[in-house]
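does this look right to u?? flavin-adenine dinucleotide version
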Amino acid sequence: MKRKEAIDRITNRQHPWDIVVIGGGATGVATALDAATRGLDVLLVEQSDFGKGTSSRSTKLVHGGVRYLEQGNLTLVRDALRERTMLRRLAPMLVHDLPFFIPCKNAWQRFYFWIGLKLYDLLAGSSGFGKSHSATASMATGLMPTLRPQMHRGGVVYHDGQFDDCRLLIHMARTAASHGACLVNYMTATGLQKDSRGVIQGVELQDRESGANLTVQTRCVINAGGPFSDAVMRLDDASAEPRLAASQGVHIVLPRSFFPGETALIVPRTSDGRVLFMIPWHDRVVIGTTDTPIGHAVLEPTAQQQEIDFLLNTSAEYLTRAPSIQDVTSIFTGVRPLVKNDRSSRTASLSRDHSISVSDSGLVTIRGGKWTTVRKMAEDCVDRSIASAGLQAGSCRTQSISLHAIAGTHQPSVAASSSKAGVFNSPDAVEIANMVAQNPLWNRPITGLPAMRVIDVVWPVRYEMARTVEDVLARRTRWLFLDAAAAIRAAGDVAAILASELDRDESWQRQQVAAFTSVAQHYLNTQYN
Ligand SMILES: Cc1cc2nc3c(=O)[nH]c(=O)nc-3n(C[C@H](O)[C@H](O)[C@H](O)COP(=O)(O)OP(=O)(O)OC[C@H]3O[C@@H](n4cnc5c(N)ncnc54)[C@H](O)[C@@H]3O)c2cc1C
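got this back:
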């Protein structure tokens, strides 16, 4: 995961890649991992940072999708539950069990949810996740002391998984790299090259750091552009019909004092018919989410006033202390790439949750799905790519590939615990602790954000391809998502450390702080009142 080495590999390569993946979100990185572990030569390019799109902005649940049960979509739920179990087995330090409470108004509702969740347990099989059970009102108060007793007469507790989306993504990327994949961020796919028959045989790239234009030859191109996959399709066919409908989901983040305890709350139907989650995350609670149609996807979406109002007002109904906008420490917004009906005769809907299509020129496009199911999505996508491009490769191996440096080999130690446990709770903790032991200056707290330390910048720069202040504060650590104002205060010190690691000057540092401060405005509460 060193950017210069990746660029050298790209420029020195004399023969075609087997696969070029466009997009470094969950779908693209899982695809690169799947392809590399089958022995294919794979290059992944991401126009911004890994996870800059939807994949860092999820609700952070590894789940079967309880709400699909009501729709009777048992196959979809069973498949997602299988992936939930597998992900926890492959990355036990990054995915953990989380109990959820569903508040019920009466005994009949409690029975209804209890039956449904017993079916959920049954579909999950021996998953290792906790089993559902009904909970009296006083049990619920014990689990969630700030849940207003007027809002329920007991309910049902069930279990799903919680994870840190971006940390998992980085570990998937490192695992892919360790199996030979070449991954590079800040590299945009700007065009596709075709041979005389109109078949894609190359990708034009622009290095967003140096401005250099590059061309790579390849046997197959996979479009994993998430909400931007329509734009990637237009590189292939300028008149391609849009296939996605974009909708955004907003989360607000509050101090844990608003919702202490280790149990999450799910309201399956709010007063206006939506779903609401309140989820403990580090020393905060994340409340989401909305589902607001938007015209087109942007990389840094902004929450709308009415979305914030909905989340605050509904939280106020359920919590003993009503939160106000001043209490919100961060607001993050993600774009859902919803797949419209796909009528192309060459499209195979390999699952009802995601779709894969192959254009006449050979561009393989994967759309939809969710974080929980990316491993299976990637398997389907690489199978399809091998068949359509006639590649020589083995069968999928990702069911048994542990994600980089899993727990058991690396237990959390000084580094993880002193570095604000959980925020930078890395499976690499032992190596990080060794680095700090050799250079105690790396244990220094960051100015403006004392819970973070110098090593929390140095490590991601050296081993996780962090290139900017935003990469460090938003996606290698999660400070921007937890406390936007604190992240802004830390930006100057983080920029200085980055500059010394990357050999940049003072004007680069100033530009970095300005760029980060501008992005962080989207996460601050000050624009809403
Ligand atoms: C609000 C919300 C909450 C969610 N919560 C959950 C949850 O709790 N659990 C769950 O399982 N799923 C959840 N999901 C779904 C999940 O987050 C998404 O399915 C998943 O992150 C999509 O990943 P992706 O890689 O397809 O897209 P993205 O993460 O958006 O990645 C696409 C990438 O492609 C890059 N790209 C685009 N064009 C180019 C180009 N020309 N060159 C190079 N790169 C390019 C973009 O920069 C982007 O980084 C949620 C989604 C939303 C919106």
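The pocket of flavin-adenine dinucleotide is lined by residues 22-28, 45-48, 52-55, 57-61, 63, 188-189, 224-228, 232, 249, 289, 334-336, 369-372 (CB under 6 Å). idk if thats expected tbh
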